[in-house]
Amino acid sequence: MGIYLDNAATTPLDPEVFEAMKPFLLEDFGNPSSIHSHGRKVKAAIESARKKVAELINCTPGEIIFTSGGTEADNAIIRSAVETYPIKHAISSVIEHHAVTHTLSMLEKQNIIQVHHVRLDSTGNVDLSHLEELLKEFPGSLVSLMHANNEIGNILDIETVGDLCEKYKAYFHSDTVQTIGHYRHDMKKLKVHGMAAAAHKFHGPKGIGFMYINKDRKIHSFMQGGAQERNMRGGTENIYGIIGMTKALEICYREMDAHTSYIKGLKAHMIEKLKSAVPDVAFHGDSANLERSLYTVLNVSLPESVENEMLLFNLDLQGISASGGSACTSGASTGSHVLGAIYPNSKRGAIRFSFSKFNKPEEIDFVADRLSEIYKVSV
Ligand SMILES: Cc1ncc(COP(=O)(O)O)c(C=O)c1O
What separation in Å is there between the alpha carbon of 145 and the centre of ligand 1? Predict the structure, then answer.
């Protein structure tokens, strides 16, 4: 099956999750809005899933709204927060996921808000003093800053940002798509008002996610339709998705400590292997810092070489799946807006490896050896 090191793009479904979903694909097919027994049974399963998700992230069930995934959750929170509150300014960064950057620029184009970008340091971290300056100038803004960056893995100090948002009465949205299921979130402590999650990033099914909406900063519904999801998201529920996502999150919490240290070990192993195998190797963002970056993501900076253009293709030929993204725009690939913003003049190569509990140390060794072969001959 080859070596899969692209878990920040999506993860394989956990077989235990599939088992939990099966009855809802085959037997329990009722529409949860129907009042007969077939519908009631499914409705009860959804509500107990909501309760479970809420319990895991320590919030109330009413604060969880199921969505089709991360993109919908980000869109819904940003658009509805702006529509619900008199928000005229948004503070964000240029390295957010496109679900955020494109939503904000669309709102700006429609003259609904003005977007201000917070300064980043040389490795892509938010400059918190600049954030405070912007908040002072534009109190009551929407702040949209991701908990962890999907390309370079940098982790935001979400607690401090929450405190600043409270101080300046901002609405704080955080894209937590890369951290839900990998880190513990305690919504009673975090001062986040809206948060997005996608099940396929933590061994759940695709096409399902949720948003957390703080009960004291409620927002209007994003879609118009039926009364599902407490009037917050019309449409017949993705019941097997909801059941699968909930099971996946339960497994993540049940085994979080073991998985964290195992995956962190894989990443540390890859860093060491690459340092000794590839001349002049470096790492983008804070991804080589095990404490300040996602333990699932390593973004490798490779020496300027003719090999860079074809690297992903060459690894793919050897059965290795990873993700690319170079700072410059070349050929058919549009490059990475994240690397482009942090390393605007870089001609180095970039490859993102992202790990899961299903990866093995031998796979890391194999990949490091292939990179060593490629870069020893060509540098
Ligand atoms: C940080 C981040 N936000 C949002 C998304 C979008 O999630 P989904 O694919 O579930 O819409 C992704 C997935 O690529 C992501 O990594």
Answer: 14
* 177 CA from centroid of ligand 1 (Å): 6
CA nearest to 210, candidates 170, 252, 181, 189: 181
pTM above 0.90, yes or no: yes
> Which ligand 1 atom lies nearest to the CA of residue 74?
4
The pair of structure tokens assigned to 142 is 């929407």
For ligand 1, which residues put their CB under 6 angstroms from it? 69-71, 74, 97, 99, 146, 150, 175, 177-178, 198, 209
pLDDT computed for residue 325 by the predictor: 65
Q: Among 97, 179, 354, say which to mutate for ligand 1: greatest number of ligand atoms within 8 Å of CB.
A: 97
Dihedral of alpha carbons 113, 220, 54, 98, sign: negative
What CA–CA distance (Å, rounded) separates 268 from 298? 9
Number of residues assigned to the chain? 379
Q: Give the H/E segment covering residue 67.
A: strand 64-67
Q: Tell me the sheet residues that pair with 323.
A: 352
| Token representation of residue 90 | 């948004």
For residue 330, what pLDDT is reported? 46
Does 328 participate in catalysis according to the annotation?
yes
Task: Classify residue 13 by its DSSP letter.
Answer: P
DSSP sequence for 142-186:
EEE--SB-TTT-BB--HHHHHHHHHHTT-EEEEE-TTTBTTB---
Tell me, letter by letter, the H, E, C secondary structure of 251-300: HHHHCHHHHHHHHHHHHHHHHHHHHHHCCCCEECCCCCCCCCECCCEEEE
* Pocket mutation for ligand 1, best pick of 10, 103, 158, 201 (most atoms within 8 Å of C-beta): 201
Contact 311, 321 (CB under 8 A): no
Nearest CA-CA partner of 28 in 186, 239, 300:
239
Mind listing the pLDDT tens digit for each residue in 325-362? 665 544 445 689 999 999 999 999 999 999 999 999 99
